[in-house]
Amino acid sequence: MEYIEDIKEANLGTRTSCISQGTNNAPLFKKMFISFGTMITRFRRGCKPFIGIDGCFLKGSYKGVLLIAMALDANNGYFPLAYEIVEMENKDNWASFLRTLRIYLDGMDLSTHTFISERHNVCQNDSFYVVIYVKYICFVFCQFPLN
Predict the structure, then answer these.
(1) Which of 93, 92, 53 is nearest to 69 (CA)?
(2) Percent above pLDDT 90 for the chain
């Protein structure tokens, strides 16, 4: 896909993967992972050992789910680390997202990081611990209204 190559060319160190199926003439989008090079570098240099993961449904012409990993910077501000667009939110897609994140953060010991999630099923079973090798995970069990 040209879009992926353009992103890599414009943003050195960017890690991407894109999966589609079908023929070259009519590819069918399956999923796309992006972590910009500056995100990876800044995360390694100055973010706290905290990663929040979440997903949200995409509305409009193109349906799907956006999976995202966020960190906290030195000022307690949100820092986007990586995101992936997938067809649906399920254990396989979450495991794939977290596995890809771990691979692209090569050399970092993520077992010292705390992960927080809003009850994602992938985090509530042993596969999460196998994928990330993490000691601490927090679950948010309630949501508060914004008003």
Answers:
(1) 53
(2) 13
Start-end of H helices in 11-53: 37-46
Q: What is the pLDDT of residues 71-95, one digit of tens each?
A: 988 888 888 999 999 998 888 888 8
Q: How far is the C-alpha of 49 from the C-alpha of 71, rounded, in Å?
A: 8
- Does 147 reside within a domain? no
The total domain count for the chain is 1
Quick check: 41 and 13 in contact, CB under 8 A? Answer: yes
The size of the chain, in residues, is: 147
pTM of the shown model = 0.77
Q: Is residue 50 part of a domain?
A: yes
Host domain of residue 97: 2-139
